[in-house]
Structures are given as C-alpha cells and as structure tokens.
Design goal:
Blueprint: H1 9-18, E1 24-30, E2 33-39, E3 50-55, E4 61-65, E5 69-77, E6 97-102, E7 108-112, E8 117-121, H2 124-130, E9 139-144, H3 155-171, E10 176-180, H4 186-196, E11 197-198, E12 204-207, H5 220-233, E13 239-244, E14 252-256, E15 260-262, E16 271-273, E17 280-283, E18 286-289, E19 306-307, E20 315-319, H6 326-334, E21 339-344, H7 355-363, E22 367-372, H8 385-393, E23 396-397, H9 403-416, H10 420-427, H11 452-460
Parallel strand pairs: 6-9, 6-10, 10-12, 12-13, 20-21, 21-22, 22-23
Antiparallel strand pairs: 1-2, 1-5, 2-3, 3-4, 7-8, 11-19, 13-14, 14-17, 15-16, 17-18
Length: 463
Amino acid sequence: DQDFKGYRGLSLAVLKATGARVWCSIKMSTDQGDFIGTLLPRSETADDKHFVIKLTHNGYNVGIKAKSVTHIEILGYKKAVYAIPEKEFPKDPAKPNVVLLGTGGTIASRLDYRTGAVIPAFSPGELYGAVPELADIANMNTKKIFGEFSENIGPMHWRKVAEAVVDEIENSNVAGVVIGHGTDTMHYTAAALTFMVQNLPCPVVVVGSQRSSDRPSSDAAFNLLRAVKTAAEGDFAEVMVCMYGPTSDNYGLLHRGTRVRKMHSSYRSTFRTLSDVPIARVSEDGFVPIKKEDEYIHRDMTRTPILNTAFEEKITLLWYYPNMQPDIVDAMVDAGYKGIIIAGTGLGHVNKPLYPALRRAVEKGVQIFMTVQTLWGYVQMYVYDTGRDIMEIGVTPLANMLPEVAYVKLGWVMGQTSDPKEIKRMMTTPVNGEITEREPFDGYLVHQGGLPELEDFFKHYQV
C-alpha cells in the first residue's frame, strides 16, 4: 500500500489507528519528547518496530521506536517527488568541455525508498537538475565506465579508468577530466592513475562525497562544483583528489594523487596531504596555490599523454604488528607473491623473528620494500642496528612514500620489468611526488582544514 510504504506489523498498526500515512507532516509525541517532520517511507528490508521522520527544523532523518509513540497529530500532507528532475544541459561554445567518468560514486543522488539505497544521478540532464550551477562552469558530458563500490575497485578497474582518461583527452576536445569515485579507496586510484597516465596536458580530478546528497550536510554538490572548475579552468596537469577543505563551506583542497590519504571514516574533510602540503585551494572565485609555482605541473595542451597500464597483481601490503609470526611471510612466498611492501613501526622496523623469513623471501626473488606506518615522516633504517640488519637482508627503504602508494607503485613497476635492480631503481625514483626530498615545515596538519584558528590565519597570510 503506497500510503504505508514499507511499514508493517506494529508500526503499520499505529499509523492506521491514528490516520497518518507516508508523506504526512506530523507531530509525533513519544515518551522521549515531541518530533515534528515528514513521515518517510521505509525500506522493504527494514524492521516493523520503527518510524522514520525527516525533521522539519534541520532536515535530518530520525528513527523512532513505534512502542514509544503516545500520540500522532497530522499537520498536513504533500506527496513527495524524490526523483531528480532531468533537464537538458545547456551548451555554450564559449565554455570549456569537461567529461565526468563514472565508477560508482554518488556525487549527486536520490534515495530509493523501496530499498533504502542511494541511486546516483549521472546523465548530464540529471546532474544539471541536481546541480544547475555546473552549467555556469563548463559544458558537461558523462560516461559510465563501471559501477562499483570503491572497496571492490582494483587493478582491472584502474586500467579501464586510465584508458578512458587517455581516450577522452585525445579524442573529445576536453579541457579536463573528472572521475566520480567512492571515497574509501579513492587515494589508491589516484596513485594508480598517476603512474599509469603520465605526461598529462590537463587536470585529471578524482572526486567523491562523504555524505550523499539527500543529507543536509552533504558535501556532494560542493565537491563536484570545485572538481569541475578545476578540470575546466585550473592551471594544473596532474592527477589530483578534490575534496572538502575546512569545516566551513569556503573551499576545496587539491591533493596530489601520490600524497593523499583518507584519514577519517565520516568527516567531510577526511582527505589529507601527508608529509607535504596540498597543491592549491579551489573555490567558486578561483584558485589559490599553496605549493610554489615550480612545485606542480602546469597545464599544457600540446602534451600527449603516455599510457602504461601493465600491473603485477601478485604483490601485497604487509602491515607489521607486534609478535607477527614468520609463517605469514612464508605463506606469501609459498603462494607465489613476487613483491611485498612492509609498513613498519617507527623508522621502519619489524621484529627479529621475521628476519629468517624475510631472508628466505629475498633469496627466492621476492622484492621487499619498507615504508612507515606513522604515515608522516621517513624510513630511517640507518639509525639503529635493527634497521641496518633489515637492509642487509635485502629490504629496500622507500623514504616517505605512503604504504598504499608504495603498494600501487610496486604493482605498476613490476608490470614493466622483472629485473631486480631495475625494480629497485624505479621504486626509489619518484614519478610525481611519491618521494619528496624533505618534509616542508608546514606539512603536518597545516593548510588541511578543520582548525578554525589556522583557517583564519591563512586567510590573511600566505606561507
């Protein structure tokens, strides 16, 4: 019954007894207080013991136990239209062309109340209906490469995205490329694209949202607008992640694809540039570089991108923990793994019981590299005897390369060569910022948002 969509059992009985129905504006009195809002449908898979109301005063959805309800007052009724209106995206020959490649993220979306799932808006018409300000920036086109939750994205998908990026740049007269992506593994994909597509002429911007666009606090439209502006107008030619900057809605941050990491499970400003500073800030007013002019790659549409998607998948990232047993390393070797990235403690350490297993792995031709699980800072294996012992075994330090970036790069490097010396040379030679000569004095949680006093300072002073 559409009047009681998704409700059954106890919750349905309460609704029928009071005359309330889905989409009614109601005042629901409970033993915990009163709630005023719109009664929403429930998912078909939800239980029968709760109501869901979208609160009038702040737009958030709350669940209310049916057995706690003492009275329902009906204030009105208006059937909701929750499909995104699709409008023809206006074309302006004076504006740059930007393509949005879809991989499964929900940049603009609506809620499917039958299942409770968020359905992404993706066609140009849907995007324009959801975020009409896009038309003020660029002519938009969209292409769906695949639709995956980001935890399911891996090397096969990275290859497809890389190929699609090059195809659009070479054949579609675009000023830049935007890639819609789930946030959980966005930093892996950004790193992979940095290695797989080099010599870029224009920006390639990976973007997503922490909170879907049916939520009042959503960052979806904000991030998409900044990403499209970067692709259309930015003087950059790198793979970047464009996500929310400070806690206020002032600007987004452009993070280099090899130095970025998701650092909070739900915070909108979750993405951080580690051991470095972001490339720039982007707002509706334009761009404010944070890096110096000679520290990032500038747009040059005469360049031809170089595509190389070869990737060795028999590699792994081993996050060391106290009392790790050598049979873990032995199991990887016996399973045929060809490369191991270790995220070691402190300056790059593991326990001594692992040494024989690591030596056996090296003797069998497994390439092993060390990163630090502190994320900020450098591997310094010359400081203690233990570090020198590990290097003597054949483990190669990777300076301040992030563990996830090292994992991606090792797969890409071993896709190019099987020669151990060449693998070590390529791993320790930066492609674009995955290793830096030094950590800038302001590279630790500065320019990253979330600290109001710092935000206020940097409004007036540029370091």
